[in-house]
Every structure is written in C-alpha cells, then in structure tokens.
Amino acid sequence: MGDGSLPQTPIVTGLSHLFEHRDQPEKPGQGCWAAQSEKSGQDCWAARQLLKVLALIFLLTFPANLMAAATKVTITDKDRAEAADIFESRCVTCHGEDGRGDGPAASNLKPGPIDFHSLKWQKSVDDASIARAIIYGGSSVGVSAEMAPNPDLENEPGVVAALVGQVRGFGK
Ligand code: HEC
Q: Which atom of ligand 1 is nearest to the CA of 90?
C-alpha cells in the first residue's frame, strides 16, 4: 500500500486478489476452501477460472445494464390519465372506443385500422414499434400512413408507454 497503485477499496482488493492469486503458491489451509488434496486444488483452480469469467462478463455488461436501467420508463398516474385522454380524443375516431378498428372514421380508411384484440397482431409487434408508430406515424413502421403521427409525444416517454400499455390491454 502507499505505492501509488489503485486505492484499496474492497472491490479493487477483491478483484486484484482474484487475478493475482494464481501466482502465489498455495499454502495448506489457505486459498479457496483450504484446498489440501491435489483434486480439491484443481477444483479450486477451476472455481477461480469460473469466477474470473463471471467477473469479466459482469464488467463487460455493466454499462449495458446501466443503460437499460436508465431507459426503463416509469409510468405515473398522470401519464396514464393523459394517455387515456389522448386515446379518447385522438385514437378513437379511427381505432374505435374498444380498439377494434371500427371508429367513425375507419370506414374511409384503406387498409382500415387493425383490431387491437387480435392476438396474432399483438404477437407480431414489439412495444418499441408500437411506440414508434404512435410518435412517428404508420409510415415509420411500414404500415399505412393514414396512421397519424403524434410528434408532440416525442418527449413524453411516460405517456407513450401508457398508450402502448393501453393498446396491449386490448389483447388481454
Ligand atoms: C386517421 C386514423 C387514425 C388515427 C387518428 C390513429 N390511427 Fe392508429 N392506425 C390507423 C390505421 C389505418 C392503422 C393500420 C395501418 C395498417 O395496418 O396498414 C393504424 C395502426 C396503428 C397501430 C399498429 C401499428 C403496427 O405496427 O401495426 C397502432 C399501435 C396504432 N395505430 C395506435 C394508434 C394510437 C395509440 C392512436 C392515437 C394516439 C392512433 N393509432 C391514431 C389509423 C389511425
């Protein structure tokens, strides 16, 4: 210590122990599970290799895990209420009160809005593409451009997620 190397936090000592241990002679009663026989010494070595691989996987996936946690959208009650209002005021004219694709404006559309109750359709799309269709319109996901975009929702991830939840709800 005091040699200018990394600060000795528990994680750093733990990790360096993991990586340096192999170069130290195994003393009886030391090392993992006090390996005494040749056989358990090998098991011990294997366990250490496994730990190294796991530590490496953890370190490599750590940023991705962080990103996933950061992009996970929280839907508040306010988002849900707003989404319900938006569905009533903007979506029902085409998609119908019950999401069956039979709203008052639907008969003018070709193709008409799909039936959100169709499990086949529900399985064919993921949440991200539903969200995309809602924000950027049908043409952004390769369906009819009659499906109107809602650019004002671009910075409202909670409301969009709640709308996606509402669309998913018809399939349950
Ligand atoms: C002007 C009529 C119209 C309005 C308004 C409208 N849609 Fe649509 N929507 C459609 C049509 C038509 C389709 C089907 C397009 C196709 O299958 O080619 C569609 C498709 C969709 C899809 C399926 C996209 C896919 O990938 O299959 C979703 C989800 C959707 N609409 C949600 C909404 C929501 C939520 C609203 C309200 C914010 C809304 N739509 C407003 C006409 C409309």
A: 37
The yes-or-no verdict on residue 38 having pLDDT over 80 is no
pLDDT value of residue 126: 96
CA–CA dist 47, 22 (Å, integer)? 12
Pocket, ligand 1, Cβ cutoff 6 A: 86, 90-91, 93-95, 105, 109, 111-114, 125, 129-130, 133-134, 138, 141, 143-144, 146-148, 150, 163, 167
Query: Which residues lie closer than 8 Å to 18 by C-beta, 6 or more apart?
Result: 48, 51, 52, 55
Report the separation in Å between the CA atom of 79 and the middle of ligand 1, taken as the mean of its atom positions: 20
Dist CA 35 CA 148 (whole Å): 68
**Cβ-contact 86, 159 below 8 angstroms:** yes
Tokens encoding 142: 């390769």
Domain ranges in the chain are 10-69, 77-169
- As a CATH number, domain 77-169 is 1.10.760
Digit-coded pLDDT (tens) for 103-117: 999 999 999 999 999
What spacing in Å lies between the alpha carbon of 80 and ligand 1's midpoint? 19
